[in-house]
Amino acid sequence: MFGVHHPPLGRARRKAVLLCYPSVQEYMRTHWAFRKLAGFLAREGFHVLRFDYYGTGDSAGDYQESNIGEWLADIREAADELKDRADVRDISIVGLQLGATLAALATADGLTVRELVLWEPVVDGSTHLDQLREMEKLKFGMLRHGPRPRPHELHGYVLPDHWSADLARLRLTKATTCRAERIVIFGSDGLAEYHELARHLHDRTGGPATVQVVPEEVASGPDSALLATRVLQAMAAELSRSAA
């Protein structure tokens, strides 16, 4: 498994942050934002680790041979690696979209964290699949001539049947207790499902679960990079306040 460790710049905190990428279909357009977030957090004194799941990015393996269970194991392994490398006991996790959902599921399956930051989490896997397909239709709809969407392919990646089935069954509101002292959900608007999710997680954990709305700064298309600064700064500031 490939990972990049960003050591703290200046005075180091006794806490570290693990970053969890979204699905392989969203990896390339969010890569720049994750590198920028890692830089913000390192300047705040955190050890930061971002990593590629099995079969994605620079990690070994074939995406078609991976599955959600394997990616959950990757998150736990990355968390252990970060604790060892940073020599800390406490870590927080920031996950985006599917990465946020998997981070929450990993904490429900034994991983304990201080803060769980869910950035635009996938609350319903079936809805997420529909959104990705709509984005693909929009992309190909802009082309008067050229390739058409291929069956069993999504944003340039083959989507195996087992991935479609696993995602379709994914419901974050059905997760068991998340082992986090505090949960913060970041969204570009105050979606009702995020507030419902916050209430659900609060009821399950007994700890605070809040929603922070940070409007999008740049309207981006289905193939463009995620250009965000304000939300990255807000997440870094939130983690810094809790670590003070």
Task: Find the count of extended strands (DSSP E, 2+ residues).
Answer: 9
CATH superfamily: Alpha/Beta hydrolase fold, catalytic domain
Which stretches are low in confidence, meaning pLDDT under 50 for 5 or more residues running?
none
- Helix count, per DSSP? 7
**Large-scale geometry:** globular
The largest β sheet comes out as: 7 strands, mixed
Rg, rounded, reads 17 Å
Number of domains: 1
Secondary structure class reads alpha/beta
- How would you state the average pLDDT, rounded? 86
CATH class: Alpha Beta
Seen as an oligomer or otherwise, the chain set is single chain
List keywords for this structure.
41% helix, 7 helices, alpha/beta, seven-stranded mixed beta sheet, Rossmann fold, 244 residues, 9 strands, two-stranded antiparallel ribbon
